[in-house]
């Protein structure tokens, strides 16, 4: 059973930084792609950043230049470095993994950015 566990969320002032971590229970080599989604109150869940098994990355336009996704295959970890945070980045952030044909989700970690 694949499990994803996030950590690293919290409260930060606008302009600050946080790094989210996602620990996978198995080898992340198994995943076709891994990523981070977020969901703010009253809004749909949206893809923030994604990284494929080949290391190709993709970002939501509003976070480009501020967020960086990375993976450590040896540690089975995926990270999201978030810099220059804005109040509109406030949301629950979810780690996501895809192994055809299934999607896997973490439990979520709250990120709150105060103005």
Secondary structure class reads mainly beta
Distance between the termini: 40 Å
Number of helices: 0
Strand content: over 45%
Q: How would you describe the oligomerization state of the chains in this entry?
A: single chain
What would you call the shape? globular
Number of strands: 11
Instruction: List low-confidence stretches.
Output: none
Mean of the pLDDT scores? 94
**Share of helix among residues?**
under 10%
Order of helices and strands: EEEEEEEEEEE
Q: Main β-sheet: number of strands, strand sense, barrel status?
A: 7 strands, mixed
Radius of gyration: 13 Å
Which descriptors apply to this entry?
115 residues, mainly beta, seven-stranded mixed beta sheet, four-stranded antiparallel beta sheet, 11 strands, 55% strand, globular
Question: Layout of SSEs?
Answer:
Blueprint: E1 4-7, E2 10-13, E3 18-24, E4 33-39, E5 46-52, E6 57-59, E7 67-72, E8 77-82, E9 91-99, E10 102-105, E11 109-114
Parallel strand pairs: 2-11
Antiparallel strand pairs: 1-3, 3-8, 4-5, 4-9, 5-6, 7-8, 9-10, 9-11
Task: Describe it.
By secondary structure, the chain is mainly β. It has no helices and 11 strands. It has strands at 4-7, 10-13, 18-24, 33-39, 46-52, 57-59, 67-72, 77-82, 91-99, 102-105, 109-114. Strands 2, 4, 5, 6, 9, 10 and 11 form a 7-stranded mixed beta sheet that branches. The relative contact order is 0.32. The mean pLDDT is 94.
């Amino acid at each position: 059973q694949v499990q994803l566990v996030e950590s690293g969320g919290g409260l930060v002032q606008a302009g600050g930084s946080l790094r989210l971590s996602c620990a996978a229970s198995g080898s992340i080599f198994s995943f076709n792609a891994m990523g981070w989604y977020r969901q703010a109150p009253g809004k749909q869940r949206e893809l923030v950043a994604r990284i494929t098994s080949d290391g190709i990355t993709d970002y939501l336009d509003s976070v480009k230049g501020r967020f960086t996704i990375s993976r450590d295959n040896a540690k089975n970890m995926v990270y999201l470095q978030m810099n220059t945070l804005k109040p509109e980045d406030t949301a629950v952030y979810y780690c996501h993994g895809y192994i055809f044909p299934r999607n896997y989700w973490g439990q979520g970690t709250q990120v709150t950015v105060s103005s």
